Every structure is written in structure tokens, then in C-alpha cells.
Amino acid sequence: MFAPESHTIETYATQLARLREHMSKTVRGKDRIIDQVIVCMLAGGHVLIEDLPGVGKTTLAYALSRSLEGSFGRIQFTSDLLPSDVLGVSIFNRQNEVFEFRKGPIFANIVLADEINRATPKTQSALLEVMDRGRVSMDGQTFATPAPFMVFATQNPVDFEGTFPLPESQMDRFLMRLLMGYAEQDAELEILRNPQLSYDSIDAETIMSLDEIAAMQRDLEQIFVEESVLRYMLAIVQATRTEAEFRAGISTRGAIALKRVTQAYALLHGRGFVKPSDVQSVVKEVFVHRLSTHRQSSDTLEERHLVEDTLGRILEAIPEPV
Hints:
The protein is an alpha/beta fold. The chain contains 13 helices and nine strands. It has a five-stranded parallel β-sheet.
């Protein structure tokens, strides 16, 4: 691997800095989570934002979509939502006497899957192929989603009435799972001072085109990862597989996800190479939702904290390459 030309890295870093600044005007006091969402986009993955209602999850999705060129689709997940409501449906055209596929809201560059865990397992499973392969198979035909394609899903972890927990196969389709958290006091005060509180008031200035996003995603593979850093990642992965607290360790898919996210993180910070600190900065967001403990807990936040604590001990035990 060879790092992209330095002037390209500088150009990308400047564009991404503008995107971060623009989003921060809407999502105040959340610079870290803005960075994580941008990293997920650069890596070509999907993100799951999990937290209490009303802390800005949907606003974050709108802020990202309004900053980028391309189409946006929103799906409000409910218990009566059908797979056809998401993917689309074949309708018989009497004039031509053929079935025509009418595409659903999933066919957009950025798709907000709001409260995804309120849909039934049948509807949730309809997302597996499209999130994994970027395409929908229907009636013997295959329909590709527009590129780039990103599912931005939200769920409320403490509201279990009328919800269906996402299965492990579905969770694995998300590149990162993030915790929104409350806004800091100064940021929340600024929000209260602002009378424009609806989604329609979000600044709609386009900061980045689809071609620019595609170029960054394409060049991501060229971000250099030194052998010792690769071995550091693998040591963490292997440690999860031997950790008695976990029911199962990180898969090879998860290891590849970690590498790609660290490359995106390096690019966001204007570097053509990955540092060990990049791994430490993103590993929990990439791994936590792929791990579960033997302990039975009815609280998903408590389960998350148990996994984070165990993963934290693993990171402390593995020496950082120098």
C-alpha cells in the first residue's frame, strides 16, 4: 500500500473540515460523534445511533444529509411496517401487461431508519441484503441502490414496549454503533436560545458532492497501515476470541471493519497512514455491538457497559506498538 499524494490528503482534509464545521452548527457540542459519523460514511458503512429519545439522533442524520449532495429517504419503523414498505413492490402494469418494480425509500444515498427496533423481525431481515450488498433482489431481478449508500439507523434502548431487539446478523451489518449522550451545558443553552428547532430550519448548504465522497472512499484503501499496527489490531481481535466473558469473539468481518474505520479516521485527520492511537479511538464503536457477554441483562445499556469494560481491559493488557 502507498499513501495517496500529500496534496490529495490535504484537499480531502480541507473538505472534511468544512463538513465537520457545517454539521456542528446544527448538532452543537457533539464534535466527537460528528467525526464518528463522517468516518463511517468515508468507510462506506452503516451506523446505528442508540440513546434516549430527544437527544438529537434524528437531527444528526438530517444535518449529514443536508450537507451532502444526493437523495435522502426516511423510514419510520413501526410494528406494522412491511418489507415492501421499505424495499419496494412489484405492481402489474395493465397497459404493458408486465410487472414493474416500484422502488421503496431504501433507494436513496442516505436512509434514515428511525427507531429501527420497532419493526418486526421479518421487516428487519429485509434489510440484510441491501445493507450488506447495496442491492435488492426482487422477483428474479436485482436492483442496485445509488452510490454512495448509507443507512443511518436510530433506536431507543430503554423503551422495550413494542420493540424487537435486533438480531446479531443485523447488528453485524452496522459498521459502527454510537451513543449520542446529552449535550453539554453550554451547547444545550445555545440550543435553547435558538428559536429554529425544526428539521426544516437546518442549513441546506451542500458541502460535498457525490463524486467527492466516492473519490475519498476509493482512495481510502491507499491509506497506509504498517505491519505492526495490523498485528496490533489482530492481537485485539484474537483476545476477544479467548476472553471468557464473551460468548463469541470478533469475526474476520469485524477485523476488516476495524482496519477500514482506522483508515477513514486517519484520512479525516489529514494523514495518509494509520497510528496505533487511531485504533484505540475507534475500536469500541466498531466492536462493542459485535460482542455479548454470558451474563443475562434486560438492560441493553448495562450490557453495553459490561462489554465496554471488558474490551477496555483487553486494550490495557495489549502493548501498543512503537
